[in-house]
Amino acid sequence: MSLTENILSQLSGDVLGSLRQADRILTSIREGGSAVPIVVTQTQQPLGSVDWDVVICGSTLGILIGCALALKGVRVALIERGTLRGRDQEWNISRKELQVFLELNLLTDAELEQVIATEYNPARVSFLGGAEVWVSDVLNIGVDPVYLLETLKQRFLAVGGKLFEKTPFTQAVVHPDGVIVNNQFKTRLLIDAMGHLSPITQQAREGQKPDALCLVVGTCAQGFPENHTGDLLFSSTPIQNQCQYFWEAFPAKDGRTTYLFTYMDAHPQRLALADLFEDYLRLMSEYQGVELSQLTFKRALFGFFPSYRQPLKTPWSRILPVGDSSGSQSPLSFGGFGAMVRHLQRLTLGIHEALQTDQLSAQAIALLQPYQPSLAVTWLFQKAMSVGVNQKIDPEQINQLLSAVFQQMQQLGKPVLKPFLQDVVQFPALTQTLIKTALTHPALVAKIIPQVGLETLLDWMMHYGNLAIYSILFWLSQILEPWKKNLPISTYYWNRWAEGWKYGSGNDYFDSVGGQNFS
Ligand SMILES: Cc1cc2nc3c(=O)[nH]c(=O)nc-3n(C[C@H](O)[C@H](O)[C@H](O)COP(=O)(O)OP(=O)(O)OC[C@H]3O[C@@H](n4cnc5c(N)ncnc54)[C@H](O)[C@@H]3O)c2cc1C
Fold it and tell me: Any idea which of 84-88, 224-228, 473-477 has the lowest mean pLDDT?
């Protein structure tokens, strides 16, 4: 019996079966060639009247945007194939990012405090053989998904939102004046919040294989030696199985959460989630200084995150992906909840304005999920943290490079280090880090070129250039903002472009930290 079988069989429910099922899906994605679902069709026939402004399919992150829109008086129906319920395991996020729940009146102060299940400090970033970097107030809050989603559900229902559980999305027909979902719900706009396996996303991507995958496995368990600190990014091993493994660890409300994750391409020969789970359990004792037999496992978690170089462009009017289905979270982190929260204000105001001004064409809707150079540049980092399936590189190379980069970032201070750890890349911070690392570790930096390849590097340089351009455009947009009504473009388009430049240059970070206070 493997370690994985032994531990997972102790948990309630068929966890082992779910792990195997996730691996089957992963295999089919890696092998490609599966039939692409055709769930969206178009017709030129007008729909006539509609019953809803917005139908949201998928309720995990869908309830966040659904509740925010319903509070603005939008007629929202939320359809969910199962039931609306948050997972038992906390989502990690930073405290200041949660302010948006108050700003949008989604939660009261008291509810927000209740949502916060855990809070710890500080957290460590360290790579095998390198120095430790400690940070405070980054991803140090554990949000209770069950309480959050239940509270939002009650608010949503109280302001007139309608929830349809046990109602799987099956099909949508896009008319010039609306969309009919499941031959039943007539709406002006369909929001796809069905996660990264959404059939709508699959159809829009036309069966395209992901450019990269992040695999993550972990547990929440009791019995660890007392430890009130966390790990944001930690490695205890050199490259093995053509993978660099990274750990994350957080104090949780009923134990300690530990995750092992790794980046890779979508080659069919890559390791399975079950293999990663076995390595996670094998390496855990040394990492946390505890024997597995001393631990009481509360639950296991695992998943994989496909990522694509090109942001998703849906070809249809009146359909907008949000959450994991949009692929708009960082390819470095699997913080899809955090990404949704960061964009919640922008999405709520943008969707509301699109509905008010009837800007629901494919072109207008695409601006709500804009290209962000601040995300696109992180592709290189992901690539530099992974190894090709047949590539031979020094097993210590990734650890050495990351140690060097984080030490330089630490020396540059919190304004450089903290946004990066919260998935926000800004041109000045990135440029300073690159120059400082290249000057102090030229040999290490030179090794990246053969590791990631010239094509990736050239592609990255384009996004890096765009990051500079977006920073300038953001600055210009602030100067032009008072005159936007006189500009020869519609306010809807101006607002979306201005937001695109702001988020695409990482300048939204200053909203969430309240000016430039990096305390
Ligand atoms: C191990 C692990 C740890 C994580 N930790 C963090 C963290 O600490 N912080 C963080 O920010 N993020 C974290 N994430 C990521 C986060 O959980 C996801 O980004 C988030 O759940 C995405 O939500 P979603 O609603 O977009 O998609 P999903 O979570 O996939 O939810 C999709 C919803 O759509 C429903 N649905 C699917 N198909 C249909 C259909 N046909 N009809 C109707 N409904 C449908 C599903 O039932 C589900 O309710 C973690 C993920 C994993 C796997």
Answer: 224-228
- Whether the predicted pLDDT of 310 surpasses 80: no
Q: Quote the pLDDT of residue 518.
A: 36
**What pLDDT is attached to residue 328?**
81
Percentage of residues of the chain with pLDDT beyond 70:
98
Indicate the top mutation candidate among 21, 57, 60, 326 to test ligand 1's pocket, ranked by most ligand atoms within 8 A of CB. 60
Which pLDDT does position 519 carry in this prediction? 34
The fold adopted by the segment(s) 3-30+209-307 is: D-Amino Acid Oxidase; Chain A, domain 2 (3.30.9)
pLDDT exceeds cutoff 80 at 108: yes
The pairs formed by 12-15 with CB atoms below 8 angstroms and a separation of 24 or more are: 15/299, 15/300
The binding-site residues of ligand 1, defined as CB within 6 angstroms of any ligand atom, are 57-62, 79-82, 91-93, 168-169, 193-195, 216, 218, 301, 303, 323-325, 334-338
Write down the pLDDT at residue 512.
57
Question: Distance, CA 174 to ligand 1 centroid (Å)?
Answer: 26
Locate the ligand 1 atom nearest the alpha carbon of residue 339 and give its number.
Answer: 11
Protein residue with its CA nearest to atom 24 in ligand 1:
195
**How far from chain centre, in Å, is Cα 74?**
26
Do 226 and 260 contact (CB within 8 A), yes or no?
no
Four-residue CA torsion sign, 372, 313, 156, 149: negative
- Ligand 1 centre distance from Cα of residue 305 (Å): 10
Q: Whose CA is nearest to atom 23 of ligand 1?
A: 61
Give the per-residue pLDDT at 200: 97
Give the β-pairing of 52-57 and 76-79.
Answer: parallel
Domain with CATH 3.30.9 in the chain: 3-30+209-307
How confident is the model over 77-96, as a mean pLDDT? Answer: 95
State the CATH architecture for 40-208+312-366.
3-Layer(bba) Sandwich (3.50)
Q: Three-class SS of residue 507?
A: coil
Ligand 1: residue of 39, 84, 91, 329 to mutate (most ligand atoms within 8 A of CB) is 91
In this prediction, residue 486 carries a pLDDT of 84
Per-residue tokens: 471: 């920073």
Instruction: Work out which ligand 1 atom sits closest to the CA atom of 169.
Output: 42
pLDDT confidence bin for 432, thresholds 50/70/90? very high
Rounded to the nearest integer, the mean pLDDT of the chain is 94
Choosing from 19, 324, 347 the residue with most ligand 1 atoms within 8 A of its CB, the one to mutate for a pocket test is 324
Please give the number of the atom of ligand 1 that sits closest to the Cα of 325: 26
The answer on pLDDT for 358 being more than 90 is yes
In the chain, list all ranges with CATH 3.50.50.60. 40-208+312-366
Q: Which ligand 1 atom lies nearest to the CA of residue 142? A: 8
Residue with CA nearest ligand 1 atom 30:
195
Instruction: Name the DSSP class of 183.
Output: T
Alpha-carbon distance of 131 to 73, in angstroms, equals: 53
Q: Are strands 212-222 and 296-307 parallel, antiparallel or unpaired?
A: antiparallel
Query: Taking a C-beta distance cutoff of 8 angstroms, is the pair 481, 450 a contact?
Result: no
pLDDT at position 344 is 97
